[in-house]
Write a structure and sequence with these properties.
The protein is mainly alpha-helical and 112 residues long. It has four helices and no strands.
């Protein structure tokens, strides 16, 4: 999980610059492709090196998606609606984390 999260620390400013240069749609599509490629590498990896490489690539894509999503929200919503939209956006991460941590262990155990 650290290999997935570390790119966000080092690449967030670069991701914002790329999104300003290429636009949020193109940057978002490239980011989604990186997440898919990284996840596929991780899924088929047979060594720790390839598993780590897949997590880093997926982490780069995911970090960029989080930057692009906030940028798109700020462009779509103006005035009073922006606060509500950002509140909902920032609620998704902790809620998703709590749901995953409380349910996926039991789900994995039940599926073997």
């Amino acid at each position: 999980m650290s290999l997935f999260a570390l790119p966000a620390i080092f690449l967030s400013i670069l991701a914002g610059l790329l999104s300003d240069h290429w636009g949020p749609f193109k940057t978002g599509v490239i980011s989604l492709i990186l997440v898919i490629i990284g996840t596929l590498i991780f899924a088929v990896s047979s060594t720790l090196l390839y598993a780590g490489l897949g997590r880093v690539i997926a982490g780069v894509g995911a970090a960029t998606i989080s930057i692009v999503a906030a940028q798109i929200l700020s462009q779509w919503f103006r005035g009073r609606e922006l606060g509500t939209a950002m509140g909902i956006y920032n609620t998704a991460m902790p809620v998703g984390t709590i749901i995953c941590f409380t349910t996926f262990g039991g789900l994995g155990e039940s599926l073997g």
